[in-house]
Amino acid sequence: MKATLRHGLTLLLTMAMLAVSVSAHAERQVLDRVVAIVDDDVILQTELDARVNTIVGRLSAQGTGLPPRQLLEERVLEQLISESLQLQMADQMGMRISDNELNETLANIARSNGLSLEQFEEQLAEEGVTYQQAREQIRNEMLSGRVQQRRVGNRVRITDREVENYLQAQAGRGPDAEEYRLAYIFIQVDDPGNEDSVEQARAKAENLRQQIIDGRDFREVAVAESDAGNALEGGDMGWRTESQLPSLVAPVVPNMEVGVPSEVLENNSGFHLVTVMDKRGGEEVTVIQQHRVRHILIRPSQAVTETQAENRIRDIYQQLQDGANFAALARELSDDPVSGSDGGNLGWVSPGQMVPAFEQAMMEAEVGEIYGPVRSQFGWHILQVEERRQQDVTAENRESQARQAIYQRKFETELQNWLREIRDEAFVEFKGDYADLNPASEENNAS
């Protein structure tokens, strides 16, 4: 009995010492914790901190003012929730990004910035991001992009009449003489059918415009207040020619001074502010290089996993290298029914007509070379450039740019609607310091 009692006391003492040790360790190192549950996923404090620190570093390097840390954390947390929902969809749809495809994408990013992979890794390190973190972030962005294309792209329809109207609106303005680097703020109307909700959003947009006129940095306001998908990039829209301007801002941008916000602009989705951050001269391209190209597409689906699709396209590539007939394989195996029935022929292709991954490969391929495999948002491709030529395509190029501009405008609108839908339908519960972000319970509302 005494031995048992001594053993029990020893065990209690050991446990007490262990508790003290754990408590002391906890004081030295904050343990990771869940900050939000998102359907079948969780978001951790370390994920939130890492993303916030990355954004703070980037915005500080740009000289952009920062909102209060708590507000920034809340906005970044919403961004992580949106990403989590999309990545869960990608997993449910069987989407995968292979290491080969990811390596090629990273190499292209480095090359487009004039860097080697080693220099690219060094630059990331200077920004406090490891190469592995960058790989995973890019992988997630690629998966999200494919989910968006699959779910949102199908909602976008462009008619010939819309293109004609767009081109008529552009007529008389002359060739594109300038390019504009734009920044953008979007204030969403929570309930478009409610007049009070519309007026609240309008008043907020007007107030923010006045703050910018009074000296507050436009990009800081975008980070803190904008409901657009690029808010945490300071609302940066990149460089746009006049023909590439969204229809809402096209009438006002050419007459705007650099750094001055537009009047509040309104459409069915909400209220908008735009500013021209910079201008530069340019000339309209009328003679371009075209490629006569053919391809074979293998598309992942519910019945064909990403790995199976990649293995299948690599097998086709090997058959072509061994002398198989390209046109015959395209007719037999390609998942692009239109080009497949014509031996894979896509005809003469101009810049901007293909998705970026395919166009990049098309530009790099030598005439006659069997090139690939290449992964685009549509699936796995093998392509062959049969001929190149210089062509005056002024009219065709303008129509292509018009379609792209209309598509981008419609896609952005539909994307915002879709993101709101999936957020409203999701189960999200905030934890710890963020628990007060949870909607009030019915009991609290009643009280």
TrEMBL record:
<dbReference type="Pfam" id="PF00639">
    <property type="entry name" value="Rotamase"/>
</dbReference>
<dbReference type="InterPro" id="IPR015391">
    <property type="entry name" value="SurA_N"/>
</dbReference>
<feature type="domain" description="PpiC">
    <location>
        <begin position="288"/>
        <end position="387"/>
    </location>
</feature>
<dbReference type="InterPro" id="IPR000297">
    <property type="entry name" value="PPIase_PpiC"/>
</dbReference>
<keyword id="KW-0732">Signal</keyword>
<dbReference type="Pfam" id="PF09312">
    <property type="entry name" value="SurA_N"/>
</dbReference>
<dbReference type="GO" id="GO:0003755">
    <property type="term" value="F:peptidyl-prolyl cis-trans isomerase activity"/>
</dbReference>
<dbReference type="InterPro" id="IPR023034">
    <property type="entry name" value="PPIase_SurA"/>
</dbReference>
<dbReference type="InterPro" id="IPR046357">
    <property type="entry name" value="PPIase_dom_sf"/>
</dbReference>
<keyword id="KW-0143">Chaperone</keyword>
<feature type="signal peptide">
    <location>
        <begin position="1"/>
        <end position="26"/>
    </location>
</feature>
<dbReference type="InterPro" id="IPR050280">
    <property type="entry name" value="OMP_Chaperone_SurA"/>
</dbReference>
<feature type="domain" description="PpiC">
    <location>
        <begin position="177"/>
        <end position="278"/>
    </location>
</feature>
<keyword id="KW-0697">Rotamase</keyword>
<protein>
    <recommendedName>
        <fullName>Chaperone SurA</fullName>
        <ecNumber>5.2.1.8</ecNumber>
    </recommendedName>
</protein>
<keyword id="KW-0413">Isomerase</keyword>
<comment type="function">
    <text>Chaperone involved in the correct folding and assembly of outer membrane proteins. Recognizes specific patterns of aromatic residues and the orientation of their side chains, which are found more frequently in integral outer membrane proteins. May act in both early periplasmic and late outer membrane-associated steps of protein maturation.</text>
</comment>
<keyword id="KW-0574">Periplasm</keyword>
<dbReference type="Pfam" id="PF13616">
    <property type="entry name" value="Rotamase_3"/>
</dbReference>
<dbReference type="InterPro" id="IPR023058">
    <property type="entry name" value="PPIase_PpiC_CS"/>
</dbReference>
<dbReference type="InterPro" id="IPR027304">
    <property type="entry name" value="Trigger_fact/SurA_dom_sf"/>
</dbReference>
<keyword id="KW-0677">Repeat</keyword>
